[in-house]
Design a protein that fits this description.
This protein is of the alpha/beta class. It has 8 helices and 11 strands. α4 links the parallel β4 and β5. Bound molecules: calcium ion. Calcium ion binds next to loops.
C-alpha cells in the first residue's frame, strides 16, 4: 500500500511516515506544502491520503475538494489542529472519510489508516482469506490452514495488495507504484522475482492458490475454483 502524507510540521510528518513504513509496511511519500501534495495526488494512485488541515499553499479542505471533483475515491484522513466542529462538518461534507484531532495517539492514527484502506477496498474485516490462506492486516501475518508462512516484508505487501484486488489483473507497474515510494528506483523485474519467491512459498506449504503471470499484462491471484 502506498500512502501520501501532506503535513508541514516536518517532525510530525517524519514520525507518521516512519510508523506507517515500519509498523504497517506501507510505502510513504511526503509533501510539506498543500500545492505539492495536491499535485502528487494527480500523478500517483495512492491507497490513502493523510492530509493536515492547515497547510501552506493549499489547505487540506481544498485538496479534498480537488480530489473528489476528479471522482477520485481514494480514502482521506484529515489531521486537524484542534476541535473545530464547523470545519469538521465541512470536511466530511466535502468527501473526507475520517479525521483526527492533534495531539493524537500514533497507534490510533495507524489503526484508522488501516481501517480506511480496508474499507476503501471493500474489505472491512482485518482478516482476508483466499483458498486456505488467511492474511491478517493488523498482525501482518499470513497463515495457510492455520500455519504461519514466513514471508519477507515485500512478499507480505505484495500478497496483501493482490488479495485486495481479487480476480483483477494487476500490472507490474501498478505493483511498483503501490509497494514502493518515490525514493525507490523502479525496476519491474524486481516484482517478478518477488512474485516467484511468493509462489514458491505458497507451493511449499501445499497451497493451491497461486499468482499467475499473464504475459505483457500483469499478475493475478488465482485460487482453486476461483474461491476468491
Ligand atoms: Ca499544519
Amino acid at each position: 500500500m502506498r500512502v501520501l502524507v501532506v503535513e508541514d510540521e516536518v517532525r510530525l510528518a517524519n514520525n507518521i511516515a516512519e510508523a506507517l513504513r515500519e509498523r504497517c509496511g506501507f510505502a510513504v511519500d511526503c509533501a510539506e506544502d498543500g500545492t505539492d501534495g495536491a499535485a502528487m495526488t494527480e500523478f500517483k494512485h495512492y491507497d490513502l491520503l493523510l492530509l493536515d488541515l492547515m497547510l501552506p499553499g493549499l489547505d487540506g479542505l481544498s485538496i479534498v475538494r480537488q480530489v473528489r471533483r476528479r471522482k477520485d475515491m481514494t480514502p482521506i484522513l484529515i489531521l486537524t489542529a484542534r476541535d473545530q466542529p464547523a470545519q469538521v462538518v465541512e470536511l466530511l461534507n466535502a468527501g473526507a472519510d475520517d479525521y483526527l484531532t492533534k495531539p493524537f495517539d500514533l497507534g490510533e492514527l495507524l489503526a484508522r489508516a488501516k481501517a480506511l484502506i480496508r474499507r476503501g477496498k471493500g474489505a472491512p474485516q482485518p482478516e482476508l482469506t483466499v483458498g486456505r490462506i488467511s492474511l491478517n492486516t493488523v498482525e501482518q501475518t499470513v497463515r495457510c490452514a492455520g500455519e504461519l508462512i514466513d514471508l519477507s516484508p515485500t512478499e507480505y505487501r505484495l500478497l496483501e495488495y493482490l488479495i485486495f484486488r481479487p480476480r483483477a489483473i494487476v500490472s507490474a507497474r501498478e505493483l511498483l507504484e503501490h509497494l514502493y515510494d518515490y525514493n525507490w528506483q523502479h525496476h519491474s523485474n524486481v516484482i517478478e522475482a518477488h512474485v516467484s519467491n511468493l509462489r514458491k512459498k505458497l507451493r511449499a506449504v501445499g497451497e493451491e492458490t497461486t499468482i499467475a503471470t499473464l504475459r505483457g499484462r500483469g499478475y493475478r491471484l488465482e485460487a482453486p475454483e476461483q474461491q476468491l
